[in-house]
Amino acid sequence: MDIRRKPVLSKWLIHLWFIVFSLFCIIPFLYVISISFSKESDIAIYGYQLIPRTITTFAYEYLLESPKALINSYLVSITVTVLGTALSLIITAKLAYVLSRKDFHGSKPMSFFVFFTLLFSGGLVPSYILIKNYMHIDDTMLSLIFPYVIMPWHVLLMKGFLSDIPLALIESAKIDGAGEWKIFYRIVLPISKPAIATLTLFIAFIYWNDWYMALLYIDNQNLVPLQFMLYRIMNNIQFLSTSLQTGNISIDLSQMPNETARMAIAILAAGPILFVFPFFQKYFVKGLTVGAVKG
Amino acid sequence: MGNMADHSVLNMENSIRINKKKNSGFWRGIIRNKGIISLAIPGLLFVIVFYYLPMFGLVLAFKDLNFTKGIWGSDWVGFTNFKFFFTSDAALQVTRNTLVLNFCFITITNIVAVTFALLLFELSRKAVKLYQTAIFFPYFLSWVTVSYVTYALLNPELGVINHLLELFGWEGISWYFESKYWPSILSLAFLWKNVGYSMLIYYTGLLAIDKTFYEAAAIDGASKWQQIRSISIPLLTPLITLIVLLQIGRIFYSDFGLFYFLPADSGALYSTTDVIDTYVFRALRVTGDTGMATAAGLYQSVVGFLLVLTVNFIVRKINKENAIF
């Protein structure tokens, strides 16, 4: 302990530096929050402000007044995230576990088989044609879920963590007569909680934040996930008014809280994951140990 | 482990062995390990279907795709698709943009992330957690959301930055029409979103270093700076190499959302923001030219692959330990 606390001044400088950089990371987003709570007319006059002149929740009320499209997108995003994360988590963990087992001779060639995909890929067009013309899962939720089920980088992260499980533990379970599946579910999963938690968050985040698969494969209005809806709004402000009109409310376009409503939707889309992620913090450092460093 | 069982299997199979000497070892291995292999099967299936099958689709680059005939039935056209792509003005532009921008991203982000990790390492765990949360936070925003953030900053009339510029008496800039600013904007955005993640990986790498090295060094009177230079950095190098190597292998690929949403797909900015991925996407979805899109994609994959091999070879020459294969 004594060794680590010699130069006090430099430590304060480091703190100061990180405080500044932390603000740099947070303030731009605070602007978005602030705009969403501002009055439209204030924005027209003063531009975007860090602290709203008049705080109002009008943009949110406005969005929630006719929430059909919004709620629908929310449901799509939630369904895809929950199903996708569960599926991806279990399949990734199992595969990573097998690759991490040093006593299994097949793990080396299998690892190469999996990680080779980090180096070479077929690219966008063949994948697109595979999903659209061969699997015929475009315009279904499967096209939003399947492409992300196995991500080699996640397998690598998980493998790194699982390599630390002592082989003796598995050997002794085997002697007690446990099969491989039982060992995985009863021993490996429970002792890998930090890694599982980290992986869950990363996978959930990928599903929640995805718009790319929707951009490629989704035409059906009822299957538009939140992020993709957000993109459309950004792309075309008119979309907001048309999608709101389908909620049977006639709107005077000039009354529409244009700028503020946009930002409000951005907040709603970013929302859930931002609330969840601080709670996972404690697992990150443990869970992210890239034990696979040495290949 | 299970030696007895192995022996009996061996004896039983000895007679059959003569005929299928080679295969039996392989299949026997599979049967003996069927429990563990069955755990891997769902994952391997997804890898095969979503990563390996598309590789076969690369033949499309040499074909004129006709959906009624299917991929295999379509006519071969040799290198025509490549010729179209490489003789277009776009080829040079998107290649240059992809390489230059990604090179900037990799160097800037890694240098900042390693520096920050080293600095964080000097602080208490509590402080680390606080800064880590703040710096990691943008990583969890989608690119669509980030594009709203940049829009809030760059909007020409209402935007924060133009307001600041006007405050200092300068003229506002029409950011979405001035291509020369975008390499810096994109680099900053990339750093903003990704530095927390990279920093954390390097920080965990530092945590993994044996504490006794530092204690021994301190007893020998090594200063903080000396400790960083002769313990932290050398021991972190394999991790840095691995990550940079993987990133260089991907240097021909781009984070699509960054290039598609932040410039708002503004044609005025293509000269500095259009990359191979956005080009391929447009060729596929807007112009519907699957042949050329696949050709550009194949070019991307092959050059990317050669890059990894090259970089790995170089690293191997310098220090065998740091290479990935």
TrEMBL record, chain A:
One protein family per Pfam: BPD_transp_1
Primary location group: membrane
Stretches assigned to coiled coil: none
Domain of life where this protein originates: Bacteria
Transmembrane domains' residue ranges: 12-33, 74-99, 111-131, 143-162, 183-208, 261-280
Subcellular location: Cell membrane
Residue ranges of domain ABC transmembrane type-1 in the record: 74-280
GO terms for biological process, alphabetical: transmembrane transport
Keyword Plastid in record: no
SUPFAM superfamilies: MetI-like
UniProt entry tagged with the keyword Transcription: no
Topology versus the membrane: Multi-pass membrane protein
A cellular component term, taken from the record's GO annotations: plasma membrane
Protein keywords: Cell membrane, Membrane, Transmembrane, Transmembrane helix, Transport
Family of the protein in this entry: Belongs to the binding-protein-dependent transport system permease family.
Name of the protein described by the UniProt record: Sugar ABC transporter permease
Organism expressing this protein natively: Cohnella abietis
Automatic annotation (TrEMBL), chain B:
Domain ABC transmembrane type-1: 95-315
Annotated SUPFAM superfamilies: MetI-like (SSF161098)
Membrane topology annotation: Multi-pass membrane protein
Subcellular localization, as worded in the UniProt entry: Cell membrane
One GO location term (cellular component): plasma membrane
Coarse class of the protein's main subcellular location: membrane
BP GO annotations: transmembrane transport
Alphabetical list of Gene3D superfamilies matching this protein: MetI-like
InterPro entries noted in UniProt: ABC_transporter_permease (IPR051393), MetI-like (IPR000515), MetI-like_sf (IPR035906)
Annotated keywords: Cell membrane, Membrane, Transmembrane, Transmembrane helix, Transport
Protein name: Sugar ABC transporter permease
